[in-house]
Amino acid sequence: MREQSKGTLLERMEIELLEVGPERITARMPVAGNTQPYGLLHGGASVVLAETLGSIGAALAAGEGRVAVGIEINATHHRAARSGWVTGVATPLTVGNTLATFDIVVTDEQDKRVCTCRLTCMLRDAAPGS
User: Fold this and answer.
1) Cα–Cα distance measured from residue 92 to residue 23, given in angstroms and rounded to the nearest whole number
2) Could you read off the pLDDT of 50-79 as tens digits, one per residue?
3) Can you tell me the distance from the alpha carbon of 123 to that of 61, in angstroms, rounded to the nearest whole number?
4) What's the predicted TM-score (pTM) here?
5) Which residue in 61, 64, 58 sits closest to 118, CA to CA?
6) What are the tens digits of pLDDT across the range 83-96?
């Protein structure tokens, strides 16, 4: 996974994968470098973390020869994070043959909820030659 993330948003935002499995995907991301002008964690950064985790889970669910393509994401921002790290945990809500939906919770170092997201991905056959 580390080699696949070279030059991607995952690398740029310093997202570190901690656990990857079919029932739980976990990663952390520093607040520093991912803030908006007021010094708070940018809401879009939380969404990037969430979509990364949910997409990895959906790709695992899709299986070999198939891909996961995000089709909808929503986010509720609960509180600000100003420093340290945030951790995201994605768990499947429903996984079928064509759609996978994941619940992603982002928390701060005090285990307080910063953001809640839901991601739905379409699962489809990979394009020939990819």
Assistant:
1) 6
2) 999 999 999 999 999 999 999 999 999 999
3) 8
4) 0.94
5) 58
6) 999 999 999 999 99
